[in-house]
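Example 272.
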Amino acid sequence: MDIDRRVFIASLGGTTAVSLLSDEAKADALEEYMSARLNEAANAQAAPAQFPSMAELEAQIETRSTRRGVGNLFTARTGNVKRLDKLPSNPRLVDFFTMRFNNTSNHCLQSATKALRSGMTEEVVLACLLHDVVQEIIKVDHGWWGAQLFEPYISEKAAFAIRYHQALRFYADPANGYEYPDLYRRIFGHDYRPEPYIESTYQMVRKHKWYGEARMVTVNDLYAFDANAQVSLEPFVDIIGRHFKQPKEGLGYDNSPVAHMWRTIERPDAPL
Ligand SMILES: [Fe+2]
Ligand SMILES: [Fe+2]
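Predicted structure in complex with fe (ii) ion:
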């Protein structure tokens, strides 16, 4: 299997992020990366000509050992989970990005890079950078969970954009450059209709003064894996510095209402 070294490094958050990894962690990351690419290749070959129905997806539930909403940190896509590197004391957002958001950082960096290149405000770029990383602990209602995780540290507007991108993604807005993605026909079923709470959230958000910010997260989201994307956390370090109130005690230790969520991300192997 050919590995594009630059793509692999980018998938880990860039050379700075890689330099922080132990040799063992690098080897593990490479193995995981190769497994994921192999699975993608296999899935692409086996891709059905038609999208599944909701009933077909429902029938898969009892074929799995974990539920679809389980966070990436708690389950391996293939094989077993890997040992995680120890975070520094007083861990910062960038430490979580490089050492814990391993399955979501590439996607979020691609989204934030797209937002940066298309001239979005720094708040929107930050929202794009953070919009899916909570999926490391939970995928169900990830907009709401994600906004909650970041709310003490970012502006109300950026948290709004993160919370509501989840509902808006089910509703096309061609005037603003957003079409309903095929990815969701595959994930949710071709006959999926959003639940009433999503519909009423959408109706509320579309009339809100910050609709544009939440909509731009969906516009800059990526709906297909781009193996050739070159991404790095580096262009976003200053934006994080300006818009993310890093607690001096470290994330998880500042007694905020969400400190336990950061500790859960730090040590997902703790049994109780
Ligand atoms: Fe999302
Ligand atoms: Fe996303």
